[in-house]
Write a structure and sequence with these properties.
Layout lengths: L16 H4 L16 H37 L7 H25 L6 H33 L5 H24 L1
Helix pairs in contact: 2-3, 2-5, 3-4, 4-5
């Protein structure tokens, strides 16, 4: 004889961990909680501060290598030493910056393959912009005052590129 109880009154069945499957990370199945602008802000501020710290350390590496390479190459390659120093320094600092941003800043769950390709495209664009603008800036500034170090020009250019870089990485890379 069939069970005459109302199906809505059945007790919920307990499921074993094997039946439930792997624990899901990320938003809940029924959707993310709604948060107001004040609740959303601290996470964005913390991410931006972590990005700033990561960028500052990568910048220190970049500027140190840039200045060292300028000093080494200035006499040997007078026409292209600024561009070459910018590119070589940026390759090293960008590799460091990618790894720190992937793991610590954005805490990405994307595959390295996907994020690395996107980061490489962005880094190449930023590197080209930095090299061109720094080289142009050095030539323009040295026409006015040859005493201004290349490093000051590069620092100004890279600060301008910092804000573009953050927004692109936040929205597109990670």
């Amino acid at each position: 004889m069939a069970d005459a109880r109302d199906p809505r009154q059945r007790e919920p069945q307990q499921r074993s961990p094997e039946q439930r499957g792997p624990r899901q990370r990320g938003p809940r199945q029924h959707g993310p909680r709604q948060r107001g602008p004040r609740q959303r802000e601290p996470r964005s501020v913390k991410t931006f501060l972590r990005f700033g710290a990561s960028s500052l350390s990568a910048t220190a590496i970049d500027l140190f290598l840039f200045q060292t390479l300028c000093n080494l190459l200035r006499g040997q390659l007078p026409v292209i030493y600024v561009t070459l120093a910018t590119v070589l320094a940026r390759l090293v600092s960008a590799t460091y910056n990618y790894l720190v941003n992937y793991r610590l800043v954005f805490r990405s769950e994307n595959s390295h393959k996907q994020s690395a390709v996107r980061f490489a495209v962005l880094a190449a664009c930023v590197m080209v912009a930095s090299a061109l603008l720094t080289t142009l800036g050095v030539h323009l500034v040295h026409d006015v005052n040859a005493q201004v170090p290349e490093l000051f020009v590069k620092m100004f250019v890279d600060v301008c590129l910092f804000f573009v870089n953050y927004n692109v990485q936040k929205r597109y890379v990670y």
